[in-house]
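Posting this for the archive.
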Amino acid sequence: MGANLLGVRSHNTALVLDLLRGAGPDGISRLELAERTGLTPQAVSKITARLREEGFAAEAGRRASTGGKPRTVLRLVPEAGHAVGVHLDRDELRVVLADLDGGVVGERCVPLDLGAGAGAVVGAVVRETEGLAGEALGGSGGRAAALLGVGVALPGPLDHVHGVLHRVTGFPEWDGFPLRDALARRLGTPVVVDKDTNAAALSLAVGGERGSFAYLHLGTGLGAGLVIGGSVHRGARTGAGEFGHQVVQLDGPPCPCGNRGCVEVLCLAAIARGDVAEAARVLGVAAANLVGLLDIDLLLLGGRTIAAAPDAFVDGVAGVLAVHAEREGAPVERVPVRLAPGGARGVAEGAAQLLLAPVFGRAGG
């Protein structure tokens, strides 16, 4: 079935699937689908017939009509397909299994050393992915029938198009490693690789965040996922969002990236000595630079370090932005700062969306 779902990814089918998903369990009629997509009733009938035959859509009852017989309404069948989302952090591996609706139906989290070498890390991903899919989908036969593929999110920089890693800060041995192809060979399923921040930003956009916003992720490192005009902005070389390595102190402490005074090293140093307020202030200074550069609508904060003191970081970053806005004579409507939903598995859920979102025509958010 994974192959079948990949085969129905036409633009028109994606429009229909997205509306079916948005309608929820109450469903939507073929007439409504035609009106909202601009497709002819005949085209909608063909698409929905195929989706029902493949198991992606089912009847959700009947709805009274203004004239004539009641209309049959259709709904998405979430369990018809699944995607695995993998979050490779520097010291932890989290794997989730999500259905077509994005709902998490299984999860695993184990310690990991990203510096242990490609063989050990790839082996861990394969082991946890196969184990989780086997448990949740009823063995290898069920997994093969229902798995669209595996999305992997990890610290950058990397080449999203080819799935090749660059010099991950602190782990130069990964430079040039073809992670996507290595995992695809071992797992026998499509694999997509992206930065952790991009995956989380995609999940937020698919989940309902609108407009232009930045997701700032502070965990074992610091990065940003950018959504501009509703779409994830990766840049020409997947280089957008390397937020943690902007220099904010020219004579500051050395950073593993080779620069001095990067916002990442300053934030993590403040956390290490227990000064959360200073970490939030430094993050706020960098966030103000980003807001000034892009004039975005919203800042969302996430990552395990933020989760350990969410109020301190939200208030601290918002306070710095307020000071900057007053200095610049900005309007009263300042850029809001909020804690990102999703918690500890937000990046892993976003990694699953790397496979799921394109099915519904939402590859960029």
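Residues 198 and 225 are 5 Å apart (CA to CA). The first strand starts at residue 28 and ends at 29.
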